[in-house]
Prior knowledge:
The protein contains 31 helices and 18 strands. It is of the alpha+beta class and about 750 residues long. Among the domains are: about 495-630, Sandwich (Immunoglobulin-like); about 635-745, TATA-Binding Protein, CATH 3.30.310. The strands form 4 sheets. Strands 3, 4, 5, 6, 8 and 10 form a 6-stranded antiparallel sheet that branches. α7 (about 90-105) crosses α8 (about 110-125), α17 runs parallel beside α19 and α18 runs parallel beside α20. Mean pLDDT is about 80; it is low at about 480-490.
Amino acid sequence: MRRLVYIKSNAIKALSKISDASMMQSVARYYKRAVVDRSGVSLVSAYHMFKANRDVIKRLVNEVQKAVGNSNASVQYHAIGLMYLIRQHDKLALNKFVNYFGKNAIRSPHGYVMVIRIAKQVMEEERDAEIKMGMFKMIEGWLRHGNDMVSIEAAKAICEWSEATPKELFGAVAVLQVCLSSGRSALRLAAIRILNKLAGKHPLTVATCNVDIEALISDSNRSIATFAITTLLKTGNESSVERLMKQINSFFNEISIEFKSIIVEAIKSLCLKFPKTHSMMLPFLFNTLRDDRGLTHKTCVVNAFVEIIYSIKEASDVGLGYLAEFIEDCSHSSLIVRILYLIGDVGPKMKEPSKYIRYVFNRIMLEKAVVRVAAVDCLIKFANECKELKPSVISMLKSCLKDEDSEVREKTLIYLKSMEKGLKVEELFSFDSFYSLNELENNLIEYLDKNNNCEIDFSRIPMIPLREMRKKKKNVEIEEIVKEEIKPEFNVMNIPNVASLGECLKTCKSIQLTESETEYNVVLTKYLFKEHLVLRFEIVNTLNDQILNNVHVESKCDLEDEIVLINSTRIDELKFNESKDIYLTFLLKNKFPSASFTNLLKFNVKEIDPDTNEPEEEGYNDEYSLEEFELNISDFVLPIESKNFDIEFNNLKCELIETLVLSSIKSISVGISELISIFGLSPNNNSQSILDQNSNSHTLLLSGSLLNNERVLIKIRMVYHSSVGLTIELNVHSNDDDICEAIVNSI
Length: 747
């Protein structure tokens, strides 16, 4: 009998490997029978086939539901995983699924872990406070489970809950505190990792465990010791810094680069929290910078120095001195260039700016061309801001006129000419007007066609104010993007009463509000006007035995005071395979509202008589839930790349800086694509590409225009750590404070 089970299991596995979409209908019955067997192989095979054959696997839902109650722990575990895949987009079904296990036994710790993770997802996504607390109480009950794996997972779920308060964290922290003194290193590591992550958000709550955490600093497992020391740095006070720094020194050279970076980040955070401690922190950071040879770690330390120098005035001179000394022996051009920029930006404002000149000039004499260019840029900043240093800087710059690299020579020449005229470099290239490009082009073409030896008379070419040129260019770019985004087959003028709304500024990408195989297909398209939003619901009836009458959509917004429904349409009759549109028009009282919409499709159903093929006289009212959708800042944005990002970024007068932690994002590359999607802006300077795949930090540059033609540029500094997630610093620039605030609030 056992042999037959193995043969059947292997056959199911083989079928899952060789079956394609065209074969799934014929082999589905074998899966249906095998799902309720005592072997879980069909569940595992179905799990792996779900992406490719989602619709077929979904039909097994009744059999999978039976397998969830199976007495075999392995079968139940795999059934839970498959049931989650099938029901993952149905919030109500997920809620019922988790509540089922609150009353019925789970037969393995792995099953408990799976259910806890599903419950945490429901708790994060659900808006109903009562359902949230129900999930929390259930997870809290599992804190007292006899299996360590289950209790740790429950504690992790509570600690990672974004809405958890100190009161709700108390039980989870108490369980983790007990685990810190466990004899099993895996349990200690799991507990201290969770507490380390929690300390960034709730340091006072974690501080109650400091005595137990301090005991782990001397742990033989260096990973545990590292997490312990960084947790104490996050929760400690100013008086404990010196003692902690001595303990870090004792084992810092023995740990991996990843853990070194974690410690550096914790030291930076503590230094910013207690500025007076910089006298102890900076020497330590400098020693790690000098001793370690890895670019990844050095970049992390330099980032810490830069942030401390900009944030703590008292530390600027000392920190800049350390970095200036570091570039004397540094072999990484990218770091030298960055430090030279910092010296040029901060150095002239120090009490003794002359002491940095030697370090900068040495780079001109000894380094590569890219570094020499950066050094020239740095020197000119000293010359412009420190008049007493100007003669010596000019003599240094003159030596660069014979440099073998053309960029070094040309930059030096431009800078020297600007100083001769008493102008700053920005003023040298500052114009109020420019030649008419059309006329200039015509003159150049004529010159080439006639093979003239005479020079072009530029006095005859009309000049146009730059303000008018920029405005005209911006309007052309916006028009081109809008034309691309509006589908050619649909005419916006078909929207009822559209003429009174003005010009359609943007058509957003269509969103599927139902799955493709359901009874009714609904596709949403958003149209943005100056003060209005129009929702177009394209509805298809896929049932050949029904006719729908009086079809309409009820769309409720969570910002009803700011987004007001002023007009709606209905479909009188919708036959089989027929597509018709419903329009909802909203008045936008704010510039860039962010809101969620819940949607319900309502209609009257009349069955088709199979004998006469005519609809019945009487019908019945029915409704169908549609997927929620959101109105975000990205809907009001047109992704337009900046021609010169740095100059435009600095010229925009309004600024908003915000630091956020995105714990759910698992890598920098994922973070880049997510942020571009959230903001709807265009990446600049190829910043969407990661040059160093081993780096744990990156800077993303985004730009675009709002529908009111206002520009917005964002500089996003991001750092990823496996224990924390992705930490980002948003630096938003615009000419409108409301835009900056709307961008930050969109995350």
